[in-house]
Amino acid sequence: MPEGGTPEPNSPHGIPDPKSPHRTSRTKLPVRNLPNQTPKHRTPQSKLLNTDPPKPNSQLGTARNKLPARNPANQTPLRWSGVMAVLGCPPSPAASHPSLPPSLQVMLVGDSGVGKTCLLVRFKDGAFLAGSFISTVGIDFRNKVLTVDGVKVKLQIWDTAGQERFRSVTHAYYRDAHALLLLYDVTNKASFDNIQAWLTEIHEYAQQDVVLMLLGNKVDSAQDRVVKREDGEKLAKEYGVPFMETSAKSGLNVELAFTAIAKELKHRSMKLPNEPKFKLHDYVKKEVRGSGCCRS
Ligand SMILES: Nc1nc2c(ncn2[C@@H]2O[C@H](COP(=O)(O)OP(=O)(O)O)[C@@H](O)[C@H]2O)c(=O)[nH]1
Ligand SMILES: [Mg+2]
């Protein structure tokens, strides 16, 4: 993966449990040396959520250079729809509804430098951190509570380091993620070209029914754009994932991306008997159109 972003230095050993009550929302999760650790060795989300874990594809390596060449003809497209196992979660006293988990884990993934940290900071604090002083070490998280259809939904957003040397750390967290926001940078073609490899990795490590959305970030940099919106749309369609373009700098669609994810997770968790099925694709299309976004 290219390393065009902020520095992501090495860190001490030991990963505390991200759900530990002792951790604060800004606590760093230091890197642990996990040469052989795969999601198999962690408490699988499937145990908590009553789903079968996805079967790892032994033919697919974890390193970028082991990923197979793209060949849509013999590849099964990744489909992320379906009923998620959040339905099977134990009731939470902290939640405002008995079937909603206390927090929903949303993970930001994508190449280093695409703007994952900035997107999170924009969403959480409404600010843009220009320059390169933000550093993501392995994995970091922040909490934010959204009100979705009158229900409070607590998102725990994990910000990952896109660099190869932190890969074993991020692999270990995929299994517990309810949703993934996969980012590329519209001004960086390589970050777009790597999306397929990220999808392969997600397919290998994340829950089968994880909610996934593709985001083309930095659309404010119109003069530097090298990836057309249509290309992002086409790729997203190919893999059956919702797509939107965002800007952590201007704030375009940032709230929308997280709200859409929260809505989908909330609807999966606590669908009322006569409530129409929430369709994430339709919602995103409608809202993006409504925002007047991204015609290039
Ligand atoms: N113009 C522009 N720059 C951005 C945007 N998001 C992030 N950046 C810049 O891109 C660089 C990498 O951002 P960062 O969030 O650290 O990327 P990460 O490695 O994916 O976490 C920083 O210099 C940011 O200021 C955006 O939406 N627009
Ligand atoms: Mg970062």
TrEMBL record:
The answer to keyword tRNA processing applying to this record is: no
Q: Where does the UniProt annotation place the signal sequence?
A: none
Stretches assigned to coiled coil? none
Instruction: Answer yes or no on keyword Repeat.
Output: no
Name the UniProt key words of this record, in alphabetical order.
GTP-binding, Hydrolase, Lipoprotein, Magnesium, Metal-binding, Nucleotide-binding, Prenylation, Protein transport, Transport
Query: GO molecular-function annotation terms?
Result: G protein activity; GTP binding; metal ion binding
A GO biological process of this protein is: protein transport
Reactions accelerated catalytically: GTP + H2O = GDP + phosphate + H(+)
Which parts of the sequence are annotated with region: Disordered? 1-76
Q: Report the top EC class in one word.
A: hydrolase
SMART domains named in the record: ARF, RAB, RAN, RAS, RHO
Top-rank taxon: Eukaryota
Cofactor dependence: Mg(2+)
Per the UniProt entry, the Enzyme Commission number(s) are 3.6.5.2
Family named by the database record: Belongs to the small GTPase superfamily. Rab family.
Q: What is this protein called?
A: small monomeric GTPase
Organism of origin is Zonotrichia albicollis (White-throated sparrow)
Give me the gene this protein comes from: RAB26
